[in-house]
Fold:
Amino acid sequence: MSAGFDVAVVGAGIFGVTAALELARRGRSVVLLDQGEIPHPDAASTDISKVIRLEYGADAFYMELMEEALAGWRALDAPAGAPLFHETGFAILSSTAMAAGSFELESFTLLGQRGHRVDRLDEAEIHRRFPAWRRGAYVDGYHNPAGGWAESGAIVRRFLSDARAAGVTVRERAGVMGLADRAGAVVGVETSAGRVEADAVVVACGAWTTTLVPELAEGLSVVGQPVLHFAPADPAPFRAPRLIPWAADIARTGWYGFCANADDVVKVANHGPGVRVDPRGPRRLPDGTEERFRAFLRGALPGLADAPRVGSRLCLYSESVDGDPWITRVPGRDGLVVAAGGSGHGFKLAPLLGGLVADAVDGRVTRFGARFAWREVGGRRFEAARFGGEGGGEGG
Structure:
């Protein structure tokens, strides 16, 4: 049996590592447990990049949330040398005129209402600014200079380093077997090395959350989304600012991607319905994935269509039924807090996540945290960027 802690955090993805850091900064003794190395290669947080964007259609709640998060992203690397957040801007592209009620036009309209200056782009301007796009493929859209991309795996390592410096005890390859209960309360974590006792436990296990919190079985599911990395022979057209993070008819097709990183690797991904998967099983891209990606690239970014594939992964979303994460105490289980359900867009909230989780541990209800509280699973409300049009559905 281990000496007790104030809080045990299970899972060291972006939810868990930021929670551990913030709880330590609030004076708690914290242990952070993960089944593997950190960053865990299978964690949704782990990749070369994540989009940081303000766009959420007409949902002013998320845009306001992201405005605060963006301030945190801008401050993140101020004392450091090489930046891990790159504010290149974000491009929304549409193959037809942006229509009333569409994710694209609603985002554009709300950005203007909230005082953000964005540039409307027609076909000629898209081609002039971002010549890698095939002319005529996209005829409308806009460029938002606020936003960009973060080096996600490196960001997790950065938060982990900060957590250690703040006094967090970190246990990799912890062999978590379950939660320890006593008289209806959660009092720790059972591991292969014995029990780790804690006054409170935060479960932040992403796709594996329901193995420890079965009460969320109706509220969370696991969806695999394909991600491919390409190495173009001529990377110059794909470096910022000639290409920046983008979304192309995303509500109808799910396509989004990035500019080339420092290694001249270009990531392309799909934020769509995905495929249902068992997180305990092997991860395989669905048959025909690469062919589908290359068909898209031939019509949109032809300079990438024949580029060698240098990496791929099936990113597992911890998918909530309404697109909102669960950052809340679990009813009927004193001492247990859950922080999961990023649904493919949790990482961009990283500068705020730790505070949201720590507030849940402390029992504080805040204007943002109230939306992520425990709730009934009826009345599904999916994120507009992924389920707003003909490509939508209920998770695959």
Q: What stands out?
A: The chain has ten helices and 20 strands.
